[in-house]
Recover the amino acids of this structure.
DNA sequence: TGTGCAAATTTGATCGTTCAAATTCCTGCC
DNA sequence: GGCAGGAATTTGAACGATCAAATTTGCACA
């Protein structure tokens, strides 16, 4: 009674062989309907479930995805990973895949973890977050023929159309384009941008979204736009400082009448510093933004998760050269603008 | 070259048998030092690592902990689970344990997931978060003799000293006692409390922390304290409403001059509604609190994680009746008060 | 009725490891 | 030198599943 039933027990009860039971589970098409029913009944009766480790040993597949969980560097946007993890786990489970976590102190350590998990046959695919240009992790994974997909573009030349690896990303350009356009529709004309220093793949992309929307609107020239964009490290305090600079203006540069930001952290700082005098739009739609009624650009993490799984389990099977070339090797999903009116906040 | 080395390859290179290699790995004490060295060298040379699935199949242990990842209900405190996950994964890895995620829509579904993971021999222990009194999940786990530890007390009578299962929790009483005491030391006398409706194990515990500190201070009687505590659902808006009520006072009830809250969500609402006029202290030290300079009570999630692992791998092995009775079956860790001065916020 | 051939099912081997039992090695002592 | 007895090591079997090949079944057709 204590022992769990094995495939052999099911076979005995159903009056068939082990292999037939295995076939019912793995390729039901090749077994005759009446035997299949008999086996299914026996499985239900005994409450049998295949022993995953035995299956993994034999098939040399773990059906497990490894993903690194960050040390929660920036608290505010940390929840993006959290929501992504949830979406990924949920959708993976629906396909019989498991999600295993690991931590790493730096990229080199992460590569050691890759090796450890691969050697132990613990996972057979990885999902990478926050990749950067020339990332040693993707290079290692490619060199070692590991199956993986990144959440984030490679940001190299031509990577969009001829990527060296599979990726899913959110179209930050589109997000900031939408945000800027929405402010323009509200009659704002001098819309500033607060983002990160170049070069930053994500950051530059978002800045271009703002820039292109402003140019399309036709009010300002390229030269007039340049002083409206501020590059600063991420964080609430830098966001506040940047906004004060934009509001103050300079000789020959008028103050801005709205601001879009590359992150909710920056936007929060800007919101506080602006004292609610001008509209501010952030990025990521974090809990902070939700709580304070800050407008923000929401990343559709469900779509990102399903895109990742498609690339992992679909024709490409997590490798850039495996699938047919007709099948796109990436997914670029569109974020959604969430407009809110800020809650009243206490004065200094 | 493609194939990973097996224990057999190591044995051949070292000139010993499979089992000796296995012994070097699992019980180094029983193998002679010089053979041990030879084997260790061969392992390093080949880069051998045991195939975890094969090992699990044979030993019937998975060395994997299962934990559910929540659907991110309340965004603000969601990051607590996130930080806990990170701490748990990190410390588990140090002990050769893996962490596997799963999702569930409700407690019954979660029980189905338990069964699935157990039957597949995927995990051999569970970590439960946010348990409640009479939780069907803990009952199922006990009835099915599963190894598990909860993050959160059972909240039943006598569970503290004679628990039916192993648990780790943060001492919310102590956290609110500290917060209240800190405000008393600043000269505040009429300190209000905003929390959740009774019965709520966590909530009632935190309220008692505030209550006991107030009583110890001696300024107010029990009857005078009652109107200073407000019970309301969690959230930013309810927090604001509660604070307005406390600030307005009533016939015979003077306004408060400070407030402690059961969560950062409530505290954030209170902070906004108070317009910075009185000090507010929250609970969880979430990113929002950090960003806005809101004082808060921080849960030491590293300690919680290590406590969970101790109970899981120590003498008790995740079961209430396994270890010696001298060994405590729970850990109650003390939170840390983080005092900040709020950043200036924009006016309505 | 027998034959051919595909479909359905069964059998034997195997994945990489550890357990249990058997064997060999070594050391001390008479 | 022989022998006892423990330490060190090796051997065969097993964990529970799937793969590959062998076998049996079922059906159409001559």
């Amino acid at each position: 009674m204590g022992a769990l039933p094995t495939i052999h027990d099911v076979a005995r009860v159903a009056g068939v062989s082990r292999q037939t039971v295995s076939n019912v589970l793995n390729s039901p098409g090749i077994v005759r309907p009446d035997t299949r029913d008999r086996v299914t009944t026996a499985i239900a009766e005994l409450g049998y479930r295949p022993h995953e480790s035995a299956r993994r040993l034999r098939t040399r597949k773990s059906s497990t995805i490894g993903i690194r969980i960050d040390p929660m560097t920036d608290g505010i946007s940390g929840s993006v990973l959290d929501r992504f993890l949830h979406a990924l786990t949920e959708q993976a489970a629906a396909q019989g895949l498991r999600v295993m976590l690991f931590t790493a102190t730096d990229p080199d350590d992460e590569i050691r973890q890759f090796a450890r998990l691969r050697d132990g046959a613990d996972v057979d695919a990885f999902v990478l977050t926050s990749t950067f240009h020339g990332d040693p992790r993707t290079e290692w994974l490619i060199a070692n023929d590991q199956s993986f997909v990144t959440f984030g573009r490679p940001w190299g030349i031509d990577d969009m159309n001829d990527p060296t690896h599979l990726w899913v990303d959110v179209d930050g350009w589109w997000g900031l384009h939408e945000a800027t356009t929405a402010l323009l529709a509200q009659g704002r004309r001098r819309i500033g941008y607060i983002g990160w220093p170049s070069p930053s793949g994500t950051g530059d992309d978002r800045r271009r979204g703002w820039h292109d929307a402003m140019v399309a609107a036709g009010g300002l020239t390229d030269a007039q736009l340049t002083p409206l964009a501020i590059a600063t490290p991420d964080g609430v305090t830098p966001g506040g400082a940047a906004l004060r600079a934009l509001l103050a203006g300079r000789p020959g540069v008028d103050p801005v009448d709205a601001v879009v930001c590359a992150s909710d952290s920056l936007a929060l700082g800007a919101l506080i510093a602006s004292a609610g005098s001008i509209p501010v739009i952030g990025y990521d739609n974090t809990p902070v933004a939700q709580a304070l009624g800050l407008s923000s650009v929401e990343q559709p993490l469900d779509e990102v998760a399903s895109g990742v799984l498609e690339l992992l389990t679909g024709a490409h099977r997590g490798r850039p050269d495996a699938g047919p070339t007709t099948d796109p090797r990436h997914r670029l999903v569109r974020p959604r603008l969430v407009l809110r009116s800020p809650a009243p906040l206490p004065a200094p």
